[in-house]
Design brief:
5-stranded parallel β-sheet; 6 helices; binds adenosine-5'-diphosphate
Length: 163
């Protein structure tokens, strides 16, 4: 059984994330989507909300599990018995950050490999932050996120709007 971990903030999950996840699930026996609980990013959704939005999409796919985690990603992967991390690459602008992260992870856990899947062109400009920005300004985001995520964003911003 070859298990891989797909770690990220997923604030919230987009169709780009989902595409990487589906393609990774074709390559491995099991994928654990690992929702980071304590990274440096200010998030709109709580870890439990981010996890629930992903679960709603992958529900019933036996190869995919969704978990939240704290601490180093490689330590989480070790605890889960996984030796592969999956990351997605969009433009060159992702490369520098991803390279640094992969090098740090390699230093902390030499036995763990990071594997990159290239984003499909149609998702290469989709990011959680752009989606949040567009949704807050009431832009149409239905081509870029699952319906449940679109609903959750609308609800979040409705609740946050001044009364
Ligand atoms: P992090 O804060 O760890 O970067 P993200 O949720 O932003 O978490 O991203 C998780 C992973 O998914 C990263 O490797 C990122 O490059 C990748 N990713 C994000 N958006 C897309 C997309 N549209 N297509 C492919 N990969 C993506």
């Amino acid at each position: 059984m070859i298990r891989a971990v797909y770690p990220g903030t997923f604030d919230p999950m987009t169709n780009g994330h989902l595409d990487i996840l589906t393609r990774a699930a074709d390559l491995f026996d099991e994928i654990i989507v690992a929702v980071a609980d304590d990274n440096n990013k200010q998030t709109l959704f709580t870890p439990a909300e981010r996890l629930a939005l992903i679960e709603e999409e992958v529900n019933g796919q036996p190869k995919i599990k969704v978990m939240t985690f704290c601490g180093l990603t490689v330590e989480f992967a070790r605890r889960q018995g996984a030796r592969t991390l999956i990351r997605g690459l969009r433009a060159m602008s992702d490369y520098e950050y991803e390279l640094q992260l992969a090098m740090m992870n390699k230093k902390f856990a030499p036995e763990i490999e990071t594997i990159f899947l290239m984003a499909q062109v149609k998702y290469s400009f989709v990011s959680s932050s752009a989606i949040k920005w567009a949704s807050r300004l009431e832009g149409r985001i239905e081509d870029f996120v699952p319906a449940g995520v679109e609903r959750a964003l609308r609800e979040k911003y409705r609740l946050q709007a001044p009364r």
